[in-house]
Amino acid sequence: MRTLFIENREEIDAVIRACKTCYVAMSDEGMPYVLPLNFGYDGETVILHSAQHGRMWETVKKNPKICINWTLGEDLAWQDVRVGCSYRVKSKSVLVEGTIEFIDDFDEKVACLEKTMCQYSDREFKFSKPSVENVGIMKVHIDKIVAKEFGAKAVTPWNQNKE
User: Fold this and answer.
1) Residue 160 included in any domain
2) pTM above the 0.85 mark?
């Protein structure tokens, strides 16, 4: 079984869109800090939201460089059932390195919240004025994106046309 890079942007976007949670890594004065978050995604930016206070908010205000992970799939695969080192979790993973832009404009915050809700539902939503004013919206501009498939079957002449 192999680890393969995913180069096709449509496949990368499909992995992101299939996930319900992303894991956001940041550096809090040199100490790693990771949080699971809901998100929005438009292909160019990732939308995150939180309270406008607390450890995460203070950390990204000091250092807006973050890394985001999405992982899809948890099926076990192995080459030999008796060999532990041959086991893998079949999955696809996307990593984004980016820089946060804090959104303060009311209408842009609403647009970001709408993009976030599109990740989870095709319904139309309303947002109250106090909710929009009190939420912290972060738009992550993608500096780098890398994706991999883990546990892929090695392609050989005798299996290239088989599952």
Assistant:
1) no
2) yes
Residue 161 lies in a domain: no
Amino acid at 151: G
Q: Is residue 163 part of a domain?
A: no
2 by Cβ neighbours in 10 Å (0-12 / 13-18 / 19+) ranks as exposed
Is 158 part of a structural domain of the chain? Answer: no
28-37 pLDDT per residue, tens: 988 999 999 9
